[in-house]
């Protein structure tokens, strides 16, 4: 489908103009159109109770997969799949945010749009390969096929496209023309299906790329490619993931302490049966044993790859990244301090959740950047340490039995439980309840009185809980247990301006701060 603005331009202004000129005018008018949409939204919604304080959110419309994350010469780049014209239509363009501290972000605009024949039906997740001060942004462009048969699972042609970005200054970058470096038909005999990715990285002078897709044999697959020049790519390996999901997307492969970790997101498209009835794989029996009321359409997993080299890699146990309601499509990058940073979508596209922000013209945001590390063979994730520099007005108490606490919209909350603790209960604005049962070794969160807008209950087993850290923002909560051993993320749409907490626990120490940016 051609975007409405492009169709208008073609019919009204481009009847006698050549192809090269056509592209230039479409790009200019589309960006101008988006600019006016954003400006109009800003003037209409001066009061928005759900507007985030320190999480990236869209100027208008919806945001989806974070893409192309990198740290280029002291500046952080975050590209995001962005739909300014239709809140729930994915693939319209990529927005760009920049930062120098991963906390204060500047919205740059929409440098890449679905405006050419190679990506006219959508631009989808990708990554950035950093070479000095040059960035090679690879993404997937979709072109619908007009002659597809119902049994054809490909749904069209998928192009792997690269755009070279040369950094000029903090406020200006130079973008090259788009170049197709791979087509899904190039490897049709190896695997076929809906393509997503790519993630690109360099290792020992060789460039590597992975794609995710579901094959016609009804399994997930990760395809590996290599290149010596960043442009010409050769197929290397197929890694099969046998799980009961229809779509595999947003692949990532990164290394922590030289250990290869594969991340992939999966979802079910449409109303097809989501579970294998004889062997229900929709609820994963991992170490934390997630207990959920409903099978979710979208899930994001990681696995420690087994093997000493790409040729030997095989999939280990799949583990969920986050046990909350709103988490999808994580992507990682290494920053100037050699930290592996992960950012994900704080949302669950296609779920039964209803976000009241849609009535205000937008939905979804991104998680706070999280630093990843391995401790005793387990992956931990924590908010970047930079957020602690924004802590103000520290308060601390020891809970004898119960306590009423009032927090500002943006706050950092840390609860330390004593060894003899039997657990705790936390009521947040009579909307969300959190709890830990020491005897059952169960942590949970549950929305009260249907205030979750479709979100209901999450529980995860954890042997011993010693610390609960919660980052509050205007309409989101990110929970980290035992210094990042387990994470749970959710949107929360309260009626009150601030957070009002009722906490019951014996002997626990509570410390909280305002977050001021």
Report on the architecture of this protein.
With 517 residues, this protein is mostly beta strands. Helix content is 7%, strand content 48%. The chain has helices spanning 4-13, 19-44; strands at residues 61-72, 75-83, 93-99, 105-113, 123-131, 134-143, 157-169, 172-175, 179-183, 195-203, 206-214, 220-227, 234-241, 247-256, 259-267, 291-292, 298-304, 319-320, 328-334, 340-346, 362-363, 365-366, 370-375, 378-383, 391-398, 402-407, 411-416, 423-428, 432-437, 442-447, 457-461, 467-473, 476-481, 486-491, 499-504, 509-515. The strands form 7 sheets. The chain has a 7-stranded antiparallel beta sheet with strand order 16-31-30-29-28-35-26, with no helix packed on it. Strands 25-36-27-32-33-34 form a 6-stranded antiparallel beta sheet, with no helix packed on it. Strands 4-3-2-1-21 form a 5-stranded mixed beta sheet. Strand 23 (370-375) and strand 24 form a beta hairpin. Helix 1 (4-13) packs across helix 2. It is globular. It starts with a helix and ends with a strand.
């Amino acid at each position: 489908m051609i975007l409405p603005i492009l169709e208008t331009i073609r019919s009204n202004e481009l009847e006698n103009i050549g192809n090269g000129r056509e592209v230039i005018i479409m790009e200019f008018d589309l960006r101008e159109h988006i600019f006016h949409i954003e400006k109009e939204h800003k003037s209409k919604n001066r009061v928005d109770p759900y507007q985030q304080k320190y999480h990236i959110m869209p100027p208008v419309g919806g945001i989806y997969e974070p893409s192309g994350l990198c740290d280029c010469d002291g500046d952080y780049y975050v590209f995001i799949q962005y739909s300014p014209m239709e809140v729930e239509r994915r693939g319209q363009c990529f927005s760009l945010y920049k930062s120098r501290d991963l906390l204060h972000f500047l919205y740059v605009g929409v440098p890449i749009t679905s405006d050419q024949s190679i990506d006219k039906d959508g631009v989808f997740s990708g990554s950035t390969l950093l070479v000095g001060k040059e960035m090679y942004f690879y993404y997937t462009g979709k072109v619908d096929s007009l002659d597809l048969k119902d049994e054809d699972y490909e749904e069209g042609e998928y192009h792997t496209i690269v755009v070279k970005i040369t950094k000029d200054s903090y406020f200006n970058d130079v973008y090259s023309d788009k170049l197709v470096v791979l087509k899904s038909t190039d490897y049709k005999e190896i695997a076929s299906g809906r393509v997503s990715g790519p993630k690109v990285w360099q290792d020992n002078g060789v460039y590597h790329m992975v794609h995710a897709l579901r094959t016609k044999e009804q399994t997930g697959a990760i395809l590996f490619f290599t290149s010596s020049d960043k442009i010409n790519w050769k197929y290397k390996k197929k890694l099969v993931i046998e799980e009961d999901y229809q779509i595999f997307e947003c692949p990532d492969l990164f290394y922590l302490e030289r250990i290869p970790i594969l991340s992939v997101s999966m979802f079910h498209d449409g109303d097809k049966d989501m579970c294998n009835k004889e062997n229900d794989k929709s609820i994963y029996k991992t170490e934390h044993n997630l207990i959920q009321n409903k099978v979710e359409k979208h899930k994001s997993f990681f696995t420690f790859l087994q093997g000493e080299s790409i040729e030997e890699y095989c999939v280990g146990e799949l583990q969920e990244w986050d046990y909350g309601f709103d988490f999808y499509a994580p992507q990682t990058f290494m920053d100037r301090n050699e930290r592996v940073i992960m950012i994900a979508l704080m949302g669950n596209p296609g779920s039964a959740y209803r976000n009241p922000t849609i009535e205000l013209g937008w939905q979804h945001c991104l998680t706070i950047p999280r630093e990843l590390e391995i401790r005793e063979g387990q992956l931990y994730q924590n908010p970047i340490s930079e957020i602690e520099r924004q802590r103000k007005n520290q308060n601390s108490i020891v809970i004898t039995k119960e306590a009423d606490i009032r927090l500002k919209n943006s706050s950092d909350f840390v609860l330390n439980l004593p060894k003899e603790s039997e657990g705790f209960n936390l009521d947040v604005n009579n909307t969300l309840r959190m709890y830990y049962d020491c005897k059952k070794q169960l942590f949970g969160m549950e929305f009260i009185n249907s205030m979750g807008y479709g979100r209901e209950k999450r529980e995860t087993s954890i042997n011993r809980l010693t610390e609960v850290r919660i980052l509050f923002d205007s309409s989101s909560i990110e929970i980290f247990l035992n210094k990042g051993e387990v994470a749970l993320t959710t949107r929360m749409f309260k009626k009150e301006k601030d957070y009002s907490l009722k906490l019951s626990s014996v002997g626990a120490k509570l410390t909280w701060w305002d977050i001021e940016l």
